[in-house]
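Course assignment 3, question 2. Fill in each field.
Student: A.L.
Task: Predict the tertiary structure for the chain below.
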Amino acid sequence: MTTLLTGAAGFIGFHLGVALAERGLPVLAVDSINDYYDPALKRARLAVLARYPNLRFMQMDVSDPACIEYLLDYRPGITSVLHLAAQAGVRYSLENPQAYIDANITGQLNMLEMARRLPALDSFVYASSSSVYGGNVKQPFAESDPVDHPQSVYGTTKRSGELLAYNYGHLYGLPTVGLRFFTVYGPAQRPEMAIHKFTDLLVRGEAIPLFGDGASQRDYTFIDDIIDGVVATLDLAPPFEILNLGGAETTALSDLVNWLASELEVEPRIEYLPDQPGDVPITYADVSKANALVGYSPKVPIREGLKRFVDWYRDQQV
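Answer field:
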């Protein structure tokens, strides 16, 4: 009756590990602890997870087939899989595409292969991304929309992971649920993500680099809403399903900067830069399907979420 959680030292994985452990569920947590960003932050998250006696951590890379064989030895206890391990970041995928192929495609394949060999699997839930929608002009983005033209290597690898899951559902009846996350933010998020990065710069009085004119829009989703959505999907066991998990509202980049500056009580300075390759003008989630199937309903609006993030950020500086 154990839940296998991959990517446990990551931003979403950490919060999910806490949520599962606090519910008293046995959790086997794994992570490679790579150096995409400072591993010290990942180890700090793991130190928090280590406080829970019902959570066991093992360091391993799911893109390594040997890791999968090791996990299969543990198989009598694994009844559900939450596969969040991935190489994140749209822009970095232009610099190091091989890292995305290894983590997001090979890693997904390995986990699906392992899952189909488990004797008592109830659910296989994995992280996809809003990046699969690419430059979709229909708004809001629905799961039924075409996703044939992702704008980045990252988006392509996430779409490839969905297609692999479809194959395993079709061929083996594996109950997979792919969750398309929309710009997740909140306490303990990655330091290179916009909200964290902008906060650092604003506090130091440095200019905010904005790619484009600041009019691009994102559907920002607070971490607590995401965790509620992920946990709810554990009871959903179809042969193949995909759900959007988003905030169901959009925020312009320029507004995001101004609202953060207001929370920090500083005056922002902006450095306008050319558009970045791989960026899209808007992301916007239609969450009606997730609401119908698992009762998902985002509760934290962006202004409240930014306040909570800034409160956490200030606590870290003490």
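Instructor remarks: The radius of gyration is 19 Å. The chain is about 40% helix and 20% strand.
Grade: pending
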